[in-house]
Amino acid sequence: MKRLVYTLAVLLSPFFVFSQNITGLWKGTIYNDSTKQALPYEVYICKESGKLTGYSHTCFAIDGKQYYGIKKVKVRQAKDGKIVILDDAMLANNYPAIDKNVLQLNVLDLTGTTTEPVLDGPFETNRTKQYGILTGHINLKKADAGAESALMNYLQRSSNENGVTASN
To answer: How far, in Å, CA of 131 to CA of 110, rounded?
Structure first.
């Protein structure tokens, strides 16, 4: 009997992953393998016209100066249950120099519990003429709607200015 219950749990677990709601604000860190730094990272996932989409916010410091980047991202759930997040467009940044061809790909597992979900997995950027591939690891926890968030502040300020939406 225990074997049957265990087998059913393993076979049905992908369906539970797909049924979980991944929309909302996710906050945590992005660890860069090259610099050995864990940096604050936020992702907001929403549904627009029935499709998952979202925004990301990254910040880092160079020589004591804070830099940030806010991007529109494409989000999808793969057949194996992975959450795939790919950069789509840079919306705002204060980078000293920028290569517009750098794209980040996150392939994340949805783990944790239904009350404390976690998105966790590797990321990789593409190689460009100016930059090599960067790799690392992302760990995000679903945040409360009222959590302090630089990304949500940007989305709320920008919603009237350029059509950026911050609703599910």
So the answer is: 30
